[in-house]
Task: structure prediction
Amino acid sequence: MKEKQFWNRLLELAHDKLTQSVYDFYILDAKLVKVEETTATIFLPRDEMQIFWERNINGMLLAAGFEIYDTEIKAHYVFTKVEEAASQVDLHSESTNNYQQNLSTIPYSETGLKEKYTFDNFVQGNGNVWAKSAALAVSEDPGLTYNPLFIYGGPGLGKTHLLNALGNEILKKSPNARVKYIPAESFINEFLEHLRLNDMENLKNLS
Result:
């Protein structure tokens, strides 16, 4: 009985704190396996969910634990290596911050983004609902969620719209973020030109 109360309380706290898209993407498919002594075993169907839970849900898990069990409850994620992932998050965050400090921002006119493409005017259907959810999740936590994010589909399904919307959403929340949209054709043309000129080193240094 207490296990069910604990899990429902945790879900309630997460639903109140997170946006609906993030909740659907990271929380909805998680399952409580058991609570034994002071450890809650939680099943996460995708490996990348562990990082998000460790960074964003641990506080809620502690709160729910004290409310229901009157003690500290720690998480054990099934099929993931908690210690290894936690260290990778710390190293990634530190190196990313140091790298970004040495880079200047990109003017919006040079990002390649089209301002008209946003999540608000994206036409959602059965064939692209998960792609939109993934893009929204990335916009909430860029660099950690689906890095890289790969979207595949036929023409006219909204791939270009989603990528532009993702870039626009990141800049909306973090105006100093470095965002660049490059169509595959433009990249290939530039790559071939630098290859012809034997100038690949400069290609690597382009923003």
User: Anything to note?
Assistant: Residues 81-101 have pLDDT under 50 and may be disordered. The longest strand covers residues 31-36. Residues 138 and 148 are 10 Å apart (CA to CA). Strands lie at 31-36, 39-43, 74-78.
